[in-house]
């Protein structure tokens, strides 16, 4: 430690609000270069190398072949799949010396596709699983929480190539299990949840979520049947409306009733007997052009609009709430809106609205509502779809039991891409009958730095980090105190000679400083040698996570350490279990 | 091999002119994504991992601590050192989502400096040696020779931090030896040559050159005393002029004598009795501004101008030959030029010109020369410096013996940067007396992909690659032929169980195809098992580099392989020797 570059800090720099971020800064693992850009110092680099090895082992175990693809991509390739146009400023773009447009990798489907169309000819070359561990750039306007949401990060991304759906399904399920193995080996609890495919496209996606209050995602969980989903796509059983004969709509004055709550109170009806309008502007890509469309979405008054579902329903690249002048321009009235009489709007109606008769809805005139509006009689929709947001207590779509919500950080994701990329890029193969077919692709990612940060977020106490043995930078933290230097040197040589990873605090510092740093850095086993411990008969051995220490005779230290390390590793191995696949 | 993603190619794609590039493409190691951008397929990835491990071992052996710094840098940092302005379009630049300027790493002195100024306070924290193995982007207008000159590449770059010159010198020499160890462990012959510091700055630099006709650099080598240098900075003993009393200059008509050769013939004098003018335009950075200056350089007629020396003499960021109108504008005449009577030019005179009396020089009038011009009498210079180009047969600056030239590829470089970065970035420390001093830095780089390509360029024959054991993707290439499948499977399991790396060709292909692929891929040991070899009593074992094979009984194969591998490794280890440091 007297030679180690990184120093511990008494206090984290200002602006580090998340625990793992503060601790990784204080313990000298990382330093910030600029917003969302981090350098990994020697301790972090060691932990990252361990995580990367776990990733390699689990990828190799399901047939992965490691490759390495560039970070800089020619824009042409991203234009071929349309993502050059579909993705906004999150994608890094620049021009090279010869004025050719280039993209910075935010993911590698395009480059894999280019490799595949050049290499794969026959079904005999399939299936394949390729992966690499490589830099990505995603320009987040609000990088936060340290490594959890960085702009530049290292990712393990794998890509499966198959001749048929069964093959893709097998590779998808292989990753599902491999990902649980990876997180379990890092001692990180995770849930797999169904998720939005987003800019990746494809037919199915799961996110692996580390449940934590600092998470930016909300998850719906059914403890009864195991249904779990990201709120962005979570379904739920909507309370059905009472069947009634449709009545004739009638305009009434509703002064000041510009919210659903006020309207229901004014009319003396439940919120479920009202219709709620939401106005948005969607950016939709038509060919290589982006066009803006005004969107009017309607959900029942007892529900909220889910903007992700809405964006997916209209295939929007981006979607934002409409401004008042845009709402008025369409002939609608904020606070008193509905599709009735609105012009030039893309109308999207939640399926529950369609099945709920006689709802009170806006009259598109300030201070007025219509009572007894009915879908099909008073207005039509361009799209009828589920666009409602699931929340705490909503009924599980599978079993009907009440669901709960929790927050989580996405630490991995898996996508069944199908032909989303192979078709535009022309990745085809000849099947056994000699017919040309598109390769079926899957894409699977884990952010390495984010995983490290989540492990730090999960494993710490008031004194610092408490690393699991599989991710700790070193296995043993050896402290020499006054009079223990010679024995410590010997132990250091003996332990490292046996292949034990030892961080040796040989500094000329007070015991308190050394103990505090050991706690802050968080290696699993601490050994302390000083004149006092030697007088008492040996060396003090303490697990980072426990309070009690044990006195071990010097000649038994190596054996004792090896026994402890084996036990710590067994504990981790026992976490690795088979997990049933949940659609 | 039936499952391996990469396929061998009968022919290299068009445009691959260099042997290593053709072979790495044909053998399925790499694929081009775009000009200067390459994907590394599984075979290359394995070889790269081995090279990276060698790099790590040698860096760790001299006290290196591995870290990882970002690829995307804030422009501010590059502005602080001035390189944002000094470096041209080779530096990748873009704006982030918030319109902040960003640079793509072409090297990491700035980021190291930023780390150092935040972490290093005291001399007790020095010396340090940090390194990482990370992506770089250098936008070459003419990427060529495959991995040898790529635009995106992985580099091992290390940075030393010292309190004094002795410390910097020690780290520089440590790298000098470590680099020879690295190249020797990769079985790549190299020379260390003194070189230009270029855009890196600093006081001393060596390049490690792999001598090969495909190299873009020319080296001067003295076999007598060991002096070696890149031609860009090579010095030489210039033949002295006969001492003579200066005579009065005189203008004479020299019709058509617009070259030195014609002039010398016309006047009946040796070329060494003439002065040669070279006109250039230099871009010079003054503060944050770039200005263009017209430069008139003069060497003796028996020498050529060295543009690198000239650029260094005038501290130019860029230097290009002047156009005719620029020459005329300065009052000079192309073909008949000299400093006499020229206005608004930065005049640079080679030291040999200063010491050579009575030279014939241009009169700056078409068709006329001056005879008997003398420095100090007929013209002055802004700068007198060595700006002459060394060539084949020139006298060694140390011992005077004739030097030879050879071409080479730069596979590594080491720079004594001194305070070039620590001063502008404010990297200071308090010395033992409590005085604030700038940290002394060194910077040391090896391109990983280029090193792989040079090893391929050095080790091949007409049938393909012939990898040294330390870089080969696999140690053993196992071929099963008809009737040998069961034995091959057993051997595969036995050998891999013993930790031997085996590429197993289990494909249903003709023997010729399998042998050709084995030769093309070039793993060091080939094992062939078929009904025929088994009838003859065993398995055919052949070294890739040898013609003869040996028949080994099945039960002795593992032992025999291990013996062969040990011998191959010993051969490499014997290459690793101490190399005396040559300034």
UniProtKB/TrEMBL annotation, chains A, B:
The keyword tRNA processing does not apply. It catalyses: tRNA(Pro) + L-proline + ATP = L-prolyl-tRNA(Pro) + AMP + diphosphate. It comes from the Bacteria. This is Proline--tRNA ligase. Belongs to the class-II aminoacyl-tRNA synthetase family. ProS type 1 subfamily. Its main location: cytoplasm. Catalyzes the attachment of proline to tRNA(Pro) in a two-step reaction: proline is first activated by ATP to form Pro-AMP and then transferred to the acceptor end of tRNA(Pro). As ProRS can inadvertently accommodate and process non-cognate amino acids such as alanine and cysteine, to avoid such errors it has two additional distinct editing activities against alanine. One activity is designated as 'pretransfer' editing and involves the tRNA(Pro)-independent hydrolysis of activated Ala-AMP.
